[in-house]
Amino acid sequence: xxxxxxxxxxxxxxxxxxxxxxxxxxxxxxxxxxxxxxxxxxxxxxxxxxxxxxxxxxxxxxxxxxxxxxxxxxxxxxxxxxxxxxxxxxxxxxxxxxxxxxxxxxxxxxxxxxxxxxxxxxxxxxxxxxxxxxxxxxxxxxxxxxxxxxxxxxxxxxxxxxxxxxxxxxxxxxxxxxxxxxxxxxxxxxxxxxxx
Length: 196
What we know:
This protein is of the alpha+beta class and 196 residues long. The protein contains six helices and seven strands, in the order αααααβββββαββ. Helix 1 (2-16) packs antiparallel against helix 2 (26-37), helix 3 (41-52) packs antiparallel against helix 4 (63-81) and helix 4 packs antiparallel against helix 5 (87-94). The two termini are 16 Å apart.
């Protein structure tokens, strides 16, 4: 059910924002969602990378490549967390993403949520997410989202338990940890919208 909701969210986003003929088909999105849901990170990396090549790398105004970039980033982070890729290889694979736009899948905002959701950061200046695998045994990346509109953070309590998508730009990607390697990603100029 979760996979279907993710696919519907992606497709409805593309319809609302009127994607061009270069957008992915329902079948193509379905292939990616199936791989990601099954945590087939290497296959999902190859497929998202292939689909990203369809889009002009200078055009940062389309939703499809922004969604694909986030998926690709998570595929690399997952493989880094699982120690499939070493630090140098993982960082090299994502270096071209810096400065590019991404769009996240719907994430639930709740201060009590530890994994795969959103919470207010400890310093109360950004939203924070601890991205992990489905079983929450491997941390893939720590994410901080800094908003263009500072009122987003100040009114965060009103967002509790809402399903939110975030559009933003990747400011930096670093690797940290030895026993449990993970990415630390900082996003800037973020904005949210309620998926419900």
